[in-house]
Structure formats: structure tokens, C-alpha cells
Amino acid sequence: GYRSRAAFKLTEIDDKLRLLKPGAKVIDLGAAPGGWTQVAIERGVKDVVGVDLLPIDPLPPAHLIQMDFTDPECGPRLIELLGGAPDLVMSDMAPNTVGHRKTDHLRIMGLIEAAMVFAIDVLKPGGTFVAKAFQGGETASLIGELKRHFTDVRNVKPKASRADSSEVYLVATGFKGR
Ligand code: SAM
What we know:
alpha/beta; methyltransferase; binds S-adenosylmethionine; rRNA processing
């Protein structure tokens, strides 16, 4: 079985868009407890490197590390473990909310933007970026930025994502390169 309900969201996204290709190199940001990594391995991805603030039980052959993605040493560490540039950077990261609407929104957007900047910095040309985002606020400007760097950018709301949540997944394919 899967370790998370989130696994079903990635399954739906991948059934629709076929992002997890055998032989691809994948980075999983906010990977605990490991559901997305499980789906990636099950779909034939050989090289998966994941990171989370929380410890993750091993899922061989994936490399899973416990670290803060916003630590400047994290990105280089992920690339080193992966042994090269990723074909896919996927982020399901969500910060703990503090209950103050504006603060929470800024923290969430900061994390999504950090994931996007990282993806643009490291992806192979033609690569893919997937990120959990939230409708409204700054998400429109993120989409605008993604459109400058990727040939196709879309919003996906998986059925497994609660209808009453504002969660959406941004899927950007065809990285144009640096
Ligand atoms: N995709 C995962 C799965 O299928 O098992 C579920 C991910 S869960 C919705 C979001 C995760 O993001 C949490 O485990 C949280 O610890 C992690 N996270 C939040 N901020 C982070 C950060 N700065 N660095 C690394 N992970 C972070």
C-alpha cells in the first residue's frame, strides 16, 4: 500500500500527463512519508532522490535525505546524490501553517518559488516541474514566470485532492533551458 493519500494525486497526474518515464532522474521535494517516491519507483523511475524536514523510512533504490530544502546546501546535495541533472523536479512541499492567513500565504509562496527557482537552475532541457500550489494570490505570477521557461504550463486539480481545498498542482513541461 501507499504511505500517503498524496500518492493517489501523483498517480492521477501521471496517468493524465505521463511524467514518470523509465530511466528518468527525479527529485522529490517534501517527500515524507514517501508516497510520491513509491509511485515514481513503481512506474519505473530508477533514480529518485527525495528530501524532507522529517525522516523517511527507506525506499530502495531511492536516496532519501532529511534536510530543509531552503538550506542553501540542500540543492547541491540533491544533485550530487542524483549524479547529474534531473528530468523531473516534483514538489509536494507545504509548510506548517501558523494560523495567520497572510503569514501562511507568504510562507507557502516562498517555498513554491524556491522549488521553481531550483528547477529552472538544474533541470535538463525538455524537463518537467510539478508543484503543489494554492489558488489565488501570487500563483498567477508564478504561472507567468513558468511560462517564460517552459513550453506548456497547466493547472491540475486531482480528484484525490479535497474539493474544498484551494490546492492545485502546477505542471510545467518542456523546459526551454538556461
Ligand atoms: N508527497 C508526499 C507523499 O506522497 O508522501 C507528501 C508530502 S506532505 C503533503 C508535505 C511535506 O513537505 C511534509 O512532509 C513537510 O515536512 C515537507 N516540507 C515542508 N517544508 C519543507 C522544507 N522546507 N524542506 C523540506 N521539506 C519540507
